[in-house]
Amino acid sequence: MRFLLGLVAVLALLFCGYWFAGHAALNRGTAAAFAQLQAEGMEATHEGIATRGFPARFDTTITAPRLRDPATGVGWTAPTLELVALSYRPNEVIALFPAEQTLILPREEVGIRAEAMRASGRVGLSPAMPLDNVTLESGPLTLAGDSGWQAGLAGLLMALRRSDRGPADYDLWVEGRDITLSAPGLGALAQTVPSLRVDAALTLDQPIDRALRPDARLTALTLRQAVVDLGATGLSAEGALTLDAAGVPTGTVNLTVRDWRGALSFAVAAGLVPAQIATLAERAGALMAGGGADLTAPLVFDAGQMRLGPVPLGAAPALYAAP
């Protein structure tokens, strides 16, 4: 019995030592991560790092974190960010976000109000710490831009998981419910969008791990399914695109519009399609639908241009600046 009690005491002391060593390592590692981002040219600041949760958890609170990439002007800041990990599973982390955050864009800042927003992720145990999966979920969520636009969702779920297709391949799932949007000169959408779902495969030019560079780029995108449900009408898309160094896509995305006339009316009422071209858009839709209620047409990206069926749409958008 004395042997067992002694063994338990030794194990308890070892575990306590492990926790306090891990506590110090977490604080140092988090500070080092900010320093590394700064060394890479990022704006990365905070006002304090503290870890608690003895003995079963590592609860790390970062006060006033601020991250911003000067090259793109995109960043994020919040009053606090809490990172939670079980002490016996340090490679699995939960991030708890505050109710109010700010997304920094090149020309404006976007205020974010979210209920119960949290993210969970897991990395491999190898020194490279490759991302295995990450999931972000939130209750009611609102975004408000300085320019006056607002968007809202009743709920949001996003999941990114490593794929066995290749070292830099990932599967993405996005789902939003009860989406609304309004902006000056645009008005509110004619109705709430009941749901938006995206199921896609992504290929990057490098894997997501501790060595991930800020200039990582998307090189290929496969839409298994993207669906916007508007109730009686809706839009779905599937296809595959490759992207060049400037993010200009090449490939085809097949679009199917259920009750295309209703979808067009929705888009015009929401200000997404200018009223002055509504008649032209209706004639083109009737031609492509062949008199039917539903419309199926390829959205083709080729040589820097794009077209919907036979209708030219102009230059294809570039997702990022060329190096």
Please give a structural write-up.
With 323 residues, this protein is of the alpha+beta class. The chain has a domain at 217-323. The protein is 19% helix and 48% strand. It is built from 3 helices and 23 strands. The chain has helices at residues 2-39, 260-269, 278-289; strands at 43-45, 48-52, 57-63, 66-69, 74-77, 80-86, 92-96, 100-104, 109-114, 118-123, 131-138, 141-145, 150-153, 155-162, 169-183, 187-188, 193-204, 218-229, 234-243, 249-258, 295-302, 305-308, 311-315. The chain has a 23-stranded antiparallel β-sheet that branches. Strand 19 and strand 20 form a beta hairpin. Helix 2 (260-269) packs antiparallel against helix 3 (278-289). The longest helix is centred in the N-terminal third of the chain and has 38 residues, at 2-39. The protein is globular, with a radius of gyration of 24 Å. It starts with a helix and ends in an 8-residue tail after the last strand. The model is unreliable at 1-23 (pLDDT under 50).
